[in-house]
Amino acid sequence: MHGLAEPMAAEGAARAPGTGASRWLVLDGIHHAYDAAPVVKGVDLVVGPGEIMCLLGPSGCGKTTLLRIAAGLERPHAGRVLIDGEEVAGPQRFVAPEKRRIGLMFQDYALFPHVRAIDNVGFGLTAAPRAERRRTARGMLERLGLAHLAEAYPHELSGGEQQRVALARALAPAPRAMLLDEPFSGLDERLREQVRDDTLRFLRDAGVPIVLVTHDANEALLMADQIALMRDGVLVQVGTPDQLCRKPASPFVARFFGALPAFDGRVSGRAVETPIGRAPTGCGEGCKVRVYVRPEAVELVKGAADDAGGLPSARVLDSRPMGSTSHLKLAIDGHAAPLTLNVADDGAPGVDDVVRIRLDPRRTFVFPATQDL
Q: In terms of Cα–Cα distance, which of 100, 97, 34 is closest to 62?
């Protein structure tokens, strides 16, 4: 799917939204504060039809507030919200949530406990006669494989079934945009993957802008067409999952997608020498930098150490089988902290073995040492 938001070149940078676009959800210069404490600081975001944008970030970064502003549950202190080309929030205009035609899903699903599934789904179809509401609701339940549970009450449904009923309720009125706040956090790991896949399929079929809030980086990587990573009320980088993983704009972005070992050094000859190999960089000659290394960038070289062509060596501190892989901790000369990585279990080295390692420079990230972590 074509991405609408380009990756930011640096923390705090933003792409100017195309505010005239129809069938898009546009957040334009959004500011918001609670008790004079800013929680959203000048956010610009554009989400296209059928596009899934994941708002990702640590707790308290402002992502849920931003979702609530898009939904109309909060009025921004500055900026505008446009849906399908219509301004629904701005300095002179504010459209109530129930009039925005937005589908909402929250982590607790918010189903009415004493109302059957079919009537929960039909709740938002208030303009239609009861028979038509039930017909539409039954059709939505059939699409989600829940027609046999139409007359069940929420307490008679599993967590995954409740989640799908909530999804059907949100989609039944044909919303202009879908907003989801941590919709899978209440499911156990066994159910989460299947329910997530089902939800993803139906959301794409709706063909409307979709914003999903999550703090789970892996979930964002699996679901998103675009990821908007937030920190302290600002967007630090917006781009495809591949862009954020392969071209992080800052150490914060690089480390958000997994704990990374870091090595300090100085640039010499457009590269940095580390205890595990050289990493190329565009930083200036002599610049003090920090090199972050993805675990998959470190490869164990098979064969005798004498045949390894001068590659750095490491001693195995710990080796634990993890099914098809083994989890290793390696002691690296010149680096205090052990290096951890997973390798294929077939022929994995044992404790106290000395191994040679090769660094893949394409999976290393070099930033000035003074750059904010």
A: 34
Compute the C-alpha angle 160/166/170, nearest 5°.
145
- 284 Cβ neighbours under 8 A, 6+ residues apart: 267
What are the start and end residues of each CATH 3.40.50.300 domain in the chain?
25-101+175-255
List strand residue ranges (DSSP E) for 15-151, in order: 25-34, 37-47, 52-56, 78-83, 86-90, 93-94, 102-105
- Encoded tokens for 229: 């990573």
Contact 333, 339 (CB under 8 A): no
- Just give the CATH number of 262-368: 2.40.50.140
Give domain 25-101+175-255's CATH superfamily.
P-loop containing nucleotide triphosphate hydrolases (3.40.50.300)
In this prediction the pTM is 0.86
Q: Which of 10-14, 61-65, 93-97, 281-285 has the lowest mean pLDDT?
A: 10-14
Report pLDDT digits (tens) over 316-325: 999 998 888 8
pLDDT digits (tens, 9 = 90+) for 68-100: 999 999 999 999 999 999 999 999 999 999 899
Q: Where are the beta strands (DSSP E) in 258-334?
A: 262-266, 271-274, 277-280, 288-293, 298-301, 313-321, 325-332
- CA dist 213 to 25, 48, 227, 231, 341, Å? 15, 16, 10, 13, 30
Can you read off the two tokens belonging to residue 80?
């505008």
